[in-house]
Specification:
globular; 15 helices; seven-stranded parallel β-sheet; single chain; TIM Barrel; four-stranded mixed β-sheet; 367 residues; 11 strands; alpha/beta
Length: 367
């Protein structure tokens, strides 16, 4: 591996000629002065999307916590004997309540574990129940891992699974299960999980069907900076091919109540805010307008760091995340943010808040 002497002229040269390999991404991630990197990324962000920072009012629906994959970094999964699988009446009650109190809700993020009792018919009926009860809500649902599981279980191709789910109400897909798209890292985090090529293949098929997705990255566990660069470069190459990613979202591994805490003894607080800011800034510079939206990731890094990220290349604050259960399962105490809270958070840094829908279309600008 080549370690580059990173200075601004070299970075500008990479930016002008375009990213040609992992090494170019690595240059940005290892740039010494994060503030210079951030100013550069913010300049790119302004040229791509302007000074409007968006957010979405959304609900997290974890329809099951039963999972046979048992990722070492996850504190949420349970065995079948102690886990749950939501029925459709409960789902509708949860969503209608939040829509009534905090709404209107624009997006429901549907994700669960790999539960052997979940069939494609269950997911289809779940989506139909949501759409019939709240037709104004978009379904941002299922990770590539869940699509792969349904494909194997039902003996169907990825295209057949995704086509059926799209006809049942699926609007877009999150990037869950991406973590770091380097297989030696993935084998440590979750030996039973799909490999990086499978994750990429599912995304490619989704994009070919017109299903927009987000690209994600979970960092700060057992990976190194070069492997972070590999991850970002693989996403870049797929986006150049498909143009199917709406956004890029990075968050740090949250320790607490996980097997990974025991596996790596010195992982209690592995990363700080500087790492997020470097990743956000690098993503903006590398992706430019190819992936137009970079999320600030407020949940695990905090509101104040998310505000800084909006000045370091990010343009989307993220969602309200009502009903989020995965991160709190680590023992982390998360805030509840309302529409009004987020508007104030964005205004406080001199940017223009705008509520968006699932497809990043602006619904209302709070000028």
């Amino acid at each position: 591996m080549v370690v580059w002497e990173c200075d601004f002229d070299r970075l500008l040269d990479v930016f002008v000629r375009g990213v040609r390999g992992v090494c170019d991404v690595y240059r940005f991630l290892t740039f010494t002065d994060v503030h210079v990197l951030g100013r550069f990324a913010h300049f790119v962000r302004l040229s791509v999307v302007g000074n409007v920072s968006t957010f979405v009012v959304n609900v997290i629906l974890n329809y099951t916590d039963v999972c046979v994959i048992r990722c070492k970094f996850c504190a949420f999964w349970r065995d079948k004997s102690s886990g749950y699988l939501l029925n459709f009446d409960d789902v509708v009650k949860i969503l209608k309540y939040i829509d009534y109190v905090y709404g209107p809700v624009r997006q429901v993020l549907v994700q669960g574990g790999i539960n052997p009792d979940v069939t494609i018919e269950y997911i289809e009926d779940l989506f139909k129940s949501i759409k019939n009860s709240l037709p104004h809500v978009a379904i941002h649902g299922l990770s590539p891992l869940e699509i792969h599981y349904l494909s194997v279980r039902e003996r169907m191709s990825y295209r057949e699974v995704l086509d059926r789910l799209k006809n049942s109400g699926l609007d877009s897909m999150p990037g869950g299960g991406g973590e770091i798209l380097v297989d030696n890292v993935r084998r440590v985090l979750s030996p039973s999980k799909i490999d990086s090529n499978t994750w990429i293949r599912v995304m490619e098929v989704a994009h070919s069907l017109g299903i927009k997705t987000s690209a994600t990255m979970m960092y700060g566990h057992v990976e190194n900076i070069w492997e972070r660069a590999e991850h970002i470069y693989k996403i870049l190459k797929l986006q150049e091919k498909t143009r199917g990613f709406n956004s890029f979202i990075a968050w740090n591994y949250q320790p607490g109540n996980t097997q990974l805490d025991k596996y790596v003894k010195d992982l209690k607080y592995p990363t700080g805010p500087i790492e997020l800011l470097k990743i956000v800034a690098t993503a903006r510079i590398v992706f430019r307008d190819l992936i137009p939206h970079i999320q600030a990731s407020w949940l695990t890094n905090g509101v104040e760091i998310a505000q800084i990220a909006l000045l370091y290349g990010a343009d989307d604050f993220g969602g309200t995340l009502y009903n989020e259960k995965v991160i709190p399962s680590t023992g982390f105490k998360m805030k509840i943010l309302t529409r009004e809270d987020i508007v104030k958070i964005i205004r406080d840094i001199g940017q223009i808040p705008a509520e968006r829908d699932n497809f990043y279309r602006v619904i209302k600008i709070y000028s």
